[in-house]
Amino acid sequence: MASKNLNSNLHNAKNAKNDEFYTQLSDIEKELKHYKGQFKDKVVLCNCDDPRVSNFFHFFSYNFEKFKLKKLIAICYKNQDMDLFSKNNSEKAIYLEYYGDKNGNNVPDPLEIGIKCLKGDGDFRSEECIELLKQADIVVTNPPFSLFREYVAQLVEYNKKFLIIGNNNSISYKEIFKLIKENKVWLGYNCVRWFNTNNGLAEGARSFWFTNLDTTKRHEDLILYKRYNTTDYPNYDNYDAIEVSKTANIPVDYSGVMGVPITFLDKYNPEQFEIIQLDHWGILGNLDNVVNGKTLYRRIYIRNKRIGAS
Ligand SMILES: C[S@@+](CC[C@H](N)C(=O)[O-])C[C@H]1O[C@@H](n2cnc3c(N)ncnc32)[C@H](O)[C@@H]1O
């Protein structure tokens, strides 16, 4: 029991540490350039973003005109020291509103940024933050990893468009995978690996952009060139599907169910493939799939829609 508690404490500590990984400006630029047209006249909310350190706030305030935004809101959780915009140290959380450059110098000056105090600590789940969420058209941020499920659930509940960073593991959260399977969430263009921390740049867990903004890549077919054969594509011992160890090796001519690595989602076009299930929960009753007695890493079961069901 003691070791279980220790493990869970270590796990929580690791998650909390990941919560303080800050996104590099270059990663934001690399991803956001694909969505520019979808931001016109939109209110953007960055609700886990201390403007002193958040490159999301930096990116949108400096690209406000280029992206033709209507308004930018940033919420700073538990703000302790707003010395960037104010000489007064504040114990309160704040939020910022920016309506674009007014004095023609193309720079978001402190005087152009409205700073308002929040009553609470700026938790994204608080009533006052939900009121700000309601104003937003698109939410863009890297939310705390430890609260990822709740964070996404809230965006879905309030029917918001979003582009957010989440780590590799979140794909296999039951709630998140369900949204991916139902084509309510998909992956963006890039992976994110390196983050700013208090100790400089650090390698975090492999992370993805999760979004419900349209991407061109999700309409592009994955080019398939391999042919099915029983040697290269063995059946699972415990499920009626074949094992495809690499996404690039998906056979062009197989109409039945195939197990593919999770990285398949990066190439997923819902017009080409149907996602059936994630292996480790649901149909296999929490078992990983097995080939010739060997347990494999997590797989997603898919079917090629272009060649119909077997
Ligand atoms: C992974 S960091 C990313 C920060 C920033 N969005 C970025 O990408 O650079 C997550 C941020 O969420 C803040 N945070 C933690 N819990 C929160 C909550 N309940 N509500 C809002 N923000 C929270 C953390 O303080 C941290 O600054």
Automatic annotation (TrEMBL):
<dbReference type="InterPro" id="IPR025247">
    <property type="entry name" value="EcoRI-like_methylase"/>
</dbReference>
<dbReference type="GO" id="GO:0032259">
    <property type="term" value="P:methylation"/>
</dbReference>
<keyword id="KW-0808">Transferase</keyword>
<dbReference type="GO" id="GO:0008168">
    <property type="term" value="F:methyltransferase activity"/>
</dbReference>
<dbReference type="InterPro" id="IPR002052">
    <property type="entry name" value="DNA_methylase_N6_adenine_CS"/>
</dbReference>
<dbReference type="Pfam" id="PF13651">
    <property type="entry name" value="EcoRI_methylase"/>
</dbReference>
<dbReference type="GO" id="GO:0003676">
    <property type="term" value="F:nucleic acid binding"/>
</dbReference>
<keyword id="KW-0489">Methyltransferase</keyword>
<protein>
    <submittedName>
        <fullName>Modification methylase EcoRI</fullName>
    </submittedName>
</protein>
